[in-house]
């Protein structure tokens, strides 16, 4: 599991929940809950949250639109997981979302995320109409694909502890994504 290297820190959150943003079916929420980490699973889809509630009944769920301010106080989350949920937006929106994640994290808090790689051709990279560098529209949906330098630029105000391009094998075809572990500074 991609969260394994960070598990001890995720477990040391003083009982505060990890925010799982764009939780989908709840794979990360299930993994964390099974290891004693409290989680708030957030998604835009009420259907996805219903599935999470059935799979992991002890997890609190919350309907959340990442384009709106997050309903959490400043510096309240010890960690945030955003697994394949930050790449559906125009660049300016993506920057605002990442700034909002930084606001919600405690000083020294950890953001763990995965975003599409520009080499993820099996899942849409380079396909459709390019709206911005790396952002494609196809079938009425938009999806961003990141180069390494774009990923670094997005987290320029963070301490990047890990940035790796990985191949995920959980789907029908291999999927390429950047894994980022970024820490909010103490200021």
UniProtKB/TrEMBL annotation:
<dbReference type="Pfam" id="PF08241">
    <property type="entry name" value="Methyltransf_11"/>
</dbReference>
<dbReference type="GO" id="GO:0032259">
    <property type="term" value="P:methylation"/>
</dbReference>
<dbReference type="InterPro" id="IPR029063">
    <property type="entry name" value="SAM-dependent_MTases_sf"/>
</dbReference>
<protein>
    <submittedName>
        <fullName>Class I SAM-dependent methyltransferase</fullName>
        <ecNumber>2.1.-.-</ecNumber>
    </submittedName>
</protein>
<keyword id="KW-0808">Transferase</keyword>
<keyword id="KW-0489">Methyltransferase</keyword>
<dbReference type="InterPro" id="IPR013216">
    <property type="entry name" value="Methyltransf_11"/>
</dbReference>
<dbReference type="GO" id="GO:0008168">
    <property type="term" value="F:methyltransferase activity"/>
</dbReference>
<feature type="domain" description="Methyltransferase type 11">
    <location>
        <begin position="19"/>
        <end position="113"/>
    </location>
</feature>
<dbReference type="InterPro" id="IPR050508">
    <property type="entry name" value="Methyltransf_Superfamily"/>
</dbReference>
